[in-house]
Amino acid sequence: MTATLLETRSVSKNFGALRAASDVTFKLEEGARHALIGPNGAGKTTFINLLTGVLLPTSGAVYLKGQDITTMEQAARVKRGIARTFQINRLFRGLSVLENVYISVAERVGAAPQMLKPAGARRDVIDEAMHLLETLKIANDAHHTIAGLPYGRQRLVELAIALGLKPEVLLLDEPAAGVPSAESHIILDAIDALPKTIGVLIIDHDMDLVFRFAKKITVLVRGAIFAEGTPKEIGANPDVRAVYLGQATTHG
Amino acid sequence: MSAMPTLTEHPAALALTRRHRLRWWEPLPWVLALAFYFLFPRHLGFGTELLIMVLFAISLDLALGYAGIITLGHAAFFGAGAYTVGMLAQYGIWTEPITGLIAGAAVAALIGFLSGLVLLRTTGLTLLMLTLCTMALLEEAANLGHDWTGGFDGLTGITIPPLFGLFEFNPLFPKTQYLYVLGVLFVCFVFARTLVYSPFGQSLTGIRENTLRMHAVGAPVRTRLVVCYTISAALAGIAGGIWAQANAYVNLSTLGLDRAATVLIILVLGGYGRLYGAFVGALAYMALAHFLSQVYPTAWQLGLGLLLVAIALFARGGIIGVGETLVQRLRPKMYQKQPPS
Q1: Mind listing the pLDDT tens digit for each residue in A106-126?
Q2: Which of A18, A197, B76, B170 is most deeply buried (CB count within 10 A of its CB)?
Q3: With contact defined as beta carbons under 8 Å apart, do A46 and A13 qualify?
Q4: What is the arrangement of strands in the sheet containing A18-29, beginning at the earlier edge strand?
Q5: Is residue B200 domain-resident?
Q6: What is the pLDDT of residues B270-298, one digit of tens each?
Q7: What distance in Å separates residue B11's CA from the closest CA in chain A?
Q8: Domain boundary assignment for chain A
Q9: d(CA B18, CA A29)
Q10: Cα distance from A126 to chain B (closest Cα, Å)?
Q11: How far apart are CA B131 and CA B298, in angstroms?
């Protein structure tokens, strides 16, 4: 029995009349490779926002390692080990790749509030950022500003910033979105190489990616959990095929 | 693998490690400022004003250029510093110049901190209007508090005792003022430079570039902004205080929109978020204002306006930004040497 890292109990979120999350009870285990799938507008990104504290639930509770974090601020959750990437890149565009990762590492190790020491004197932070870039195979782009980088590499920086936080829970919102399929394996390889203890939740439309990556899949439809199980079970579930996979198979 | 440079020798890592080191041209402004002292003894009044504007623009650069706090009310802190020094001296409470400046900085910092707690919850246009309102409130308070502030006439009878008990402030031959301002500017600049190259400064640029992401890496964004705003206000307060000491008077112009707009123009002209933009911008602005008002006294600001439009459209980085682009074009591509991955 593995420990539960992140858990929601009957979480709902209303935007006026729209019910973006409806009574969602969900568990992310230690070392999980969990995927969250669902048609467009199913509330997948809303769910991530509820987990990270960008949004507060209308009702229900969120727990991290047994601790109630329902009303905790975003930054405090990050300090407790939840990191995320964004569906659309949110990078420090005017800064170099190294500086992007430096910011995140400096925040984690508590270097960021230092005022009277040069940033360059924190060799530990620079070294760690460079090592991270190397494991993601983008060390050679370290000096480039984000704006001049191909989109696929930008996605890796997006991932690098999250990894710089050394999270226990990593939430990946469509990590391969916008990446040419020839390059998406770089991102998958990077995810495969993550420490085994991290609980990873991935949201994606790309079924190949999801079925390759996930050991457990949750299907979200109209804000509610529709089905949950191993990739095999989900793939064989006729209801899921009808609402979701069916669309793909009939076209393919 | 063996051909790869080790990670700490990677050009990007080296560049970041050495970023804060002194570059060859950095002593230049100070050499020029000292040369000015000896070469143009009759224009030291102009020089003093210029140096004060540089200091004021540096304070704005910390907030606007580095942290991305959009403000149109920075003269609030300039005025707060000026009135603090002015009122302390006018009523004989405290006249010693250097400690007077510290008092001015403290009052400006306090106003910056308190207003920042409220203002910095907002962004964009709301923030812009609220900074403007804060300044307008202070200006009106100074206007209405006639008994203490001299109202519209200002405080005119300020006497500042000699610096260190030795060097007299002389409004006609402002030698002391010039060197005094230069010294204070140097100290403040060294502090600002240290700050922007620190991890704290790096996190400010992070907030400027993507506030949302800063939240997502666990940064206490609003605390950082308030701290930055307070420091920026303190430096602006020093600029205002020293202005009051150098001119021996304080009036409502220290708190006005004119001054707030001028310092913004200076920063945009020179290039914001670049530290030295304040120097270049102040010099360019004051020289242009001087030159244009001689050529075309009635509408000299038109020329300045056109230049600003051109900068806003074609050179967002200001004069320094244009310089940087030119240097990059001329310099051989230094990073091309590294081996392919």
Answers
A1: 999 999 999 999 999 999 999
A2: B76
A3: yes
A4: A18-29, A4-15, A59-64, A67-68
A5: yes
A6: 999 999 999 999 999 998 888 888 888 88
A7: 7
A8: 4-251
A9: 43
A10: 7
A11: 31
State the count of interchain CB pairs (< 8 A) between A and B.
151
User: Is residue B12, in this structure, part of any structural domain at all?
Assistant: no
Measure the CA–CA gap between B192 and B205, rounded to whole angstroms: 14
Residue A250 pLDDT > 80, yes or no? no
Residue A101 Cα, gap to closest chain B Cα (Å): 10
Cβ contact (<8 Å) for B216 and A86?
yes
B278 and A CB contact within 8 Å: no
Contacting residues for B290 by C-beta, under 8 A, at least 6 apart: none
Q: Which two tokens stand for residue B11?
A: 């050009």
Residue B7 forms part of a structural domain: no
From chain A, the residues in CB contact with B209 under 8 A are 91-95
> What pTM did the predictor assign?
0.91
The answer to whether position B183 is within a domain reads: yes
Residue A59, CA distances (Å) to A51, A222, B16, B31 in order: 13, 17, 46, 65
Enter the CATH code of domain A4-251. 3.40.50.300
Q: What is the pLDDT of residues B71-86, one digit of tens each?
A: 999 999 999 999 999 9
Domain residue limits at B168: 41-279
Quick one: B174 exposed, middle or buried, by C-beta within 10 A (0-12, 13-18, 19+)?
buried
Q: Mean of the pLDDT values across residues B248-269?
A: 93
Residues 6+ positions from A35 with CB-CB distance below 8 Å: A201, A202, A203, A204, A210, A213, A214, A216, A217, A218
Structure confidence at residue B6 (pLDDT): 64
Q: Which residues contact B1 (CB under 8 A, 6 or more apart)?
A: none
Q: For A107, which residue in chain B has the nearest alpha carbon?
A: B219
- For tokens 């123009």, name the residue: B265
User: Of B54-68, B107-121, B326-340, which range is least confident?
Assistant: B326-340
Please count the CA atoms within 13 angstroms of the CA of B71 that sit on its side-chain side: 37
The two structure tokens encoding residue B138: 């202070």
Structurally, how many domains does chain B consist of?
Answer: 1
Residue B290 confidence (pLDDT): 85
Q: How far is CA A179 from CA A78, A87, A119, B247, B302, in A?
A: 26, 12, 32, 62, 49
Determine the distance in angstroms separating the CA of A163 from the nearest CA of chain B, rounded to an integer.
Answer: 10
Nearest Cα residue in chain A from B223? A113
- ipTM for the predicted complex: 0.89
Q: Do A74 and B197 touch (CB under 8 A)?
A: no
In 3-state terms, what secondary structure has residue A169? Answer: strand
From A175, A138, A165, A164, select the one nearest A153 (Cα to Cα).
A138
Instruction: Note the pLDDT tens digit of each residue in A196-242.
Output: 889 999 998 778 888 888 999 999 988 999 999 999 998 888 888 88
